[in-house]
Design a protein that fits this description.
heterodimer; A: about 475 residues; mainly beta; Porin; 7 helices; 26 strands; about 55% strand; B: about 575 residues; 3 domains; 8-stranded antiparallel sheet; about 10% helix
């Protein structure tokens, strides 16, 4: 019966895989025993009575993701010269979707510590987060590769988004409590201090070459803010006589926000556990050095449709026309900065839903569903992994099912003092991976006595019957 | 054991897999070869009209040329039919050429030697006493020189003449000399009868003969002429008049002793045979304008329907035979052609009466009896040389019993000639070649400009031809001195003429579309060109029966060219 349940469960999970759409794998798989586990579910604080993450090294994570393309899609072996590589624009273009992106993320736990008093665990973390995302449409590369010789006579060069940057420091004060043997709940109160932000409200650049003419339109509006320096554009036209100027450096702490995390874990039985958490429900209000960069002449069409000329002036007229086109483009694409009284961005909220099953002593099968609200959309993924846990060593191997099927990951922990995790998107080969994330960290942790006692009791009894003979 | 083995297997697999997850060679950017992108840009480029007037500067034909006009002829419905060049040339032969100004007729004085004249005593009776009557005092007029030319004046209206009488004798009494002449008539036609008075206080007198007509009677056996003149001599007797014999010498002078042609307003008579030559060279250079001359070479045009109207006006009463044989055109290289075929002796009508004008017109060329040598104009002359001989002769005319003697105005005779050439621009053009500069493409030479990134270009050309001529079209590349060193198209493209009917009228335009690729080599040649030209060879179109007709050109007819380019770029860069 039990085996049937297991089979049904995993079959359901596999069916669910087809609905997953996450491009970005994000953080590596975690172990609930790690102190840093509370950043994913406040109900997880490990088995430590006290921990201190090494400053700036408690959690150092890096990730990059694409919308599905990999290094090899763009840089690969030259077909004619076997010792050389090439920039394969055409192959890369075929790999692209209508809307694409490339994002980089960086996380650093500047400070973190926690301690347990009775059934309550307290924690405090200071985390630096940097997320950047550069978006572009397939039309950009269609234009580079094909020019106007493209089957669709209409291209989006940039559609809606161009650049999004979010850099902030979060201060989290956490509490989790064991309600009973089965249920543990927790939460973090967070304050966000924004460092820099770029939010693209709209970045629309279109190219149309139907009806015997080439027409381009642009409309850009991007909000920016930062805590360090005031910058602005000058001149009548940015591309003619304009420039970007800035004032002196001056630290400003007006980019603030608040948020919270909530989470819970529940033991179904001795072997199975469910968990749920909602992380980073919050916002940041950007007020310092806030600018809006926008098109000075939005949606001003620039057309190239040829010229009427006289027979003895063709060369000069063409030359003049090309100059006029350039001037028109400079006019249509001209940008200006407008002081912004402030704007609010939501911190990307994450949803985690986990399941863990110790199917054999020290051997676990885990499932983790992750969802993320970002950029007005929602993306999700499902990770399934096998983990092996010993007292001072833990290993996890698994795969995340997202927009692509094969996304392996690995996680290693040594006595919860050092840990390392990495995940690859779509391939184990870095050159073929459309995403990569890794993190590692160092902690100082003291196990709680209750846990030690539990571990002794769990040691399986040896069969000494042979001694009795 | 099983557990540990499983663990070791998993760990080994993990290490093995992740050990091989990064191949440094995949990320060795130094091995990235040069990248060349080849996007294509296709767009409409130019829409240009080539007008016929761009090739043939019709205005240059008439610019700053007096007497030349480009005229548009319309049909009966008021629609454009064709253009024609009209050239007016006026010249005059004046009295200086017609009549020798220095000719003078000598007229000796007439001495009235009256000898001793007896004046009787009338016992105090006053009144007129006739001393002599009906005495002949005819005036002899010497002929014109040279005599052998047989010129003579039969009669003449005098503009400046008189009869004077003078004496050196002491006059005892006032004398009246009554002169009368059948040869001298007043403007009203009355014969002269006038009285000159001499007295002791006035020893001369004059009778003005301005506007009188004097008849000069030819004397038999002599070249001289005689003016009939008689006189009566009367004495005005007074009570103090003393009777006695008196010697009286009177001298009669006519026109101060000579009658020059300047004294004569109108002369009837004989001019004999008088040949006048009119020589003039007119620079017509109608087709030597810079734009026109570059295109149109002698022999390229075939002028049909060319004709000339000649109109001669004269006020003289002489006949005139005119020889136009030597109306000559001269082209480049001093190549001369007679404009009028054959010997064309024309007779000009004379004015019948004084103060009238006669007009004689002649037409040459199409629909006339007199042909024009059209080749003379087809060689595109720059000079028109007039060597015209006017042979004047006496023509006494009798019309309906009325006699019209020959006459001439010594001081105001004229023969005015107006030649009116009409050259309809209805032509056939055979292999007329022209290259029209369309500017340069120097913007392709700019460093970092568009030109640096073009590998080849496809030209998609759509031509709408309203010219009544086939065009063989190419684009030529020229050096600064105009030398053609390459062409864009390997061979000219043939563009059919607009439709032409049997009357040579242009119908509908024809459309031609074609695509040609300009290779990289041709493109480099284009970039180097100092001048780019449209080379066109024209042949006038044919009607459906294959006949090449004379075409009526419309200077506003045009060829429209729409050019769409597909630029095949090659943008190379290194990392």
């Amino acid at each position: 019966m039990r085996n049937i349940r297991i089979i049904v469960l995993f079959a359901s999970l596999l069916a669910f895989v087809s609905t997953l759409n996450a491009q970005r794998l994000g953080d590596a798989v975690y172990f609930s025993s790690l102190p840093q586990a509370s950043q994913y579910n406040p109900a997880f604080h490990g088995d430590n009575s006290f921990y201190l993450s090494i400053p700036a090294l408690g959690k150092l994570g890096f990730n990059f993701n694409t919308s599905g393309f990999a290094w090899h899609d763009f840089v690969n072996q030259h077909p004619d010269y076997k010792d050389s590589l090439r920039l394969d624009f055409e192959g890369f273009d075929k790999k692209l979707k209508d809307n694409n992106y490339f994002d980089l993320g960086f996380t650093d736990e500047i400070l973190g510590f926690g301690f347990k008093i009775g059934k309550n665990h307290f924690s405090f973390d200071v985390l630096l987060n940097v997320e950047t995302k550069l978006s572009f449409s397939k039309g950009l590369f269609d234009l580079i590769v094909y020019g106007t010789d493209y089957k669709d006579k209409h291209m989006n060069i940039f559609d809606k988004k161009l650049l999004d940057v979010n850099a902030y420091v979060s201060y989290a004060l956490g509490l989790f409590r064991e309600i009973n043997d089965k249920l543990t709940v927790g939460g973090n109160l967070k304050m966000y201090m924004g460092l820099a932000n770029v939010s693209s409200k709209k970045t629309n650049v279109h190219l149309d070459f139907r009806n015997d003419k080439i027409q381009t339109l642009s409309d850009v509006e991007i909000n920016t803010a930062n805590s360090f320096i005031h910058w602005y554009m000058t001149g009548d036209n940015l591309f003619k006589d304009g420039s970007v100027e800035n004032d002196d450096f001056k630290l400003s702490l007006n980019n603030m926000g608040f948020g919270f995390d909530v989470g819970a874990s529940y033991k179904l039985n001795e072997d199975m556990q469910l968990s749920f958490s909602l992380v980073d429900v919050g916002y940041i209000k950007w007020k310092s050095n806030a600018n809006t960069v926008r098109s000075k002449h939005p949606n001003t069409p620039v057309e190239f449709s040829g010229i009427r000329t006289s027979y003895n002036n063709i060369g000069d007229d063409i030359d003049q026309y090309l100059d006029d086109i350039v001037d028109s483009l400079k006019y249509a694409f001209d940008l200006e900065t407008v002081e912004n009284s402030g704007y609010t961005t939501m911190v990307p909220t994450k949803v985690y839903l986990g399941y863990s099953w110790e199917f054999f002593s020290h051997n676990y099968l885990n499932a983790l569903y992750k969802g993320r609200f970002i950029g007005g959309g929602y993306e999700n993924s499902l990770m399934l992994n096998y983990s092996f846990k010993m007292k001072y060593f833990q290993l996890s191997l698994g795969n995340t099912f997202a927009s692509k099927f094969f996304n392996p990951n690995v996680f290693v922990s040594l006595a919860d003092i050092f840990y390392f995790g990495a995940s690859f998107a779509s391939s184990l080969n870095a050159a073929d991976a459309s995403g990569l994330s890794f993190q590692f960290g160092f902690n100082v942790a003291l196990k709680s006595k209750t846990e030690k006692k539990t571990q002794v009791e769990d040691t399986p009894k040896q069969d000494v019957s042979f001694l009795e003979k | 054991m099983r557990k540990k083995s499983f663990l070791y297997l998993i760990a080994s697999f993990t290490v093995l897999v992740f050990y091989s997850c990064v191949d440094e060679n995949d990320f060795d950017v130094d091995r990235i070869a040069r990248t060349t992108l080849k996007p294509t840009v296709e767009a409409n480029l130019i829409d240009v009209d080539f007008y016929l007037s761009d090739f043939f500067s019709f205005d240059s034909i008439t610019d700053e040329k007096e007497g030349v006009e480009l005229v548009t002829v319309y049909d009966a419905n008021g629609n454009y039919d064709y253009m024609q060049i009209e050239v007016d040339k006026n010249f005059s032969i004046s009295e200086e050429d017609i009549v020798d100004f220095n000719t003078v007729m000598e007229i000796p004085d007439v001495e009235l030697n009256l000898g001793s004249v007896y004046i009787p005593a009338l016992g105090g009776i006053t009144g007129t006493y006739t001393l002599a009557s009906n005495q002949d005092a005819s005036i002899i007029v010497a002929p014109f020189e040279p005599v052998e030319e047989h010129r003579q004046i039969d009669s003449a209206w005098l503009s400046n003449a008189d009869i004077r009488v003078a004496t050196s004798s002491a006059l005892p009494v006032t004398l009246k000399l009554v002169i009368y002449s059948s040869s001298i008539k007043s403007p009203a036609g009355e014969t002269l009868r006038d009285t000159l008075v001499l007295s002791s206080t006035s020893l001369s007198d004059v009778v003005e003969l301005n506007n009188y007509r004097v008849y000069l009677d030819k004397m038999t056996g002599s070249d001289s002429s005689k003016i009939d003149l008689k006189y009566d001599l009367l004495a005005e007797m007074e009570t103090a008049t003393v009777a006695g014999n008196y010697d009286l010498d009177l001298s009669l002078s006519f026109a101060n002793g000579q009658l020059g042609l300047w004294d004569i307003a109108l002369a009837y008579g004989k001019v004999g045979s008088l040949q006048l030559d009119y020589n003039d060279t007119v620079f017509i250079n109608y087709f030597s304008g810079e734009d026109f001359a570059e295109i149109v070479k002698p022999g390229d045009f075939d002028f049909e329907d060319m004709f000339m109207n000649l109109e001669v006006r004269t006020n003289i009463g002489l006949g005139c035979d005119v020889d136009f044989s030597s109306l000559i055109t001269e082209s480049a290289g001093e190549l001369k052609h007679n404009l009028i075929n054959g010997t064309q002796g024309l007779f000009l009508n004379r004015a019948l009466n004084p103060n009238t004008e006669s007009v004689t017109t002649y037409a040459f060329g199409k629909n006339t009896e007199r042909t024009i040598n059209t080749t003379a104009f087809e060689m595109l002359p720059d000079k028109l040389i007039y060597n015209i001989k006017f042979n004047l002769r006496d023509v006494d005319t009798l019309i309906n019993g009325v006699h019209y003697p020959s006459f001439v105005y010594p001081n105001s005779s004229y023969i005015n000639v107006n030649s009116h050439f009409i050259v309809p621009l209805k032509t056939k053009i055979m292999n007329l070649s022209t290259v029209q500069d369309i500017g340069d493409m120097k913007f392709l030479q700019e460093d970092g400009g568009v030109g640096d990134y073009l590998e080849s270009v496809d030209l998609m050309i759509e031509l709408t031809n309203s010219f009544p001529a086939d065009l063989d079209f190419n684009i030529v590349l020229r050096k600064d001195d105009g030398t053609v060193y390459d062409t864009i198209l390997d061979a000219p493209v043939h563009i059919a003429s607009a439709t032409v009917d049997n009357e040579g009228r242009v119908g509908s335009a024809t459309n031609t579309s074609f695509t040609r690729r300009i290779t990289k080599e041709k493109y480099e040649a284009l970039r180097d060109a100092e001048k780019v030209g449209a080379s066109i060879i024209l042949n006038t179109g044919k009607s459906t029966d294959g006949t090449q007709h004379y075409i009526k050109f419309d200077k506003d007819s045009k060829v429209n060219l729409k050019l769409r380019v597909k630029a095949n770029t090659a943008i190379g860069f290194d990392i």
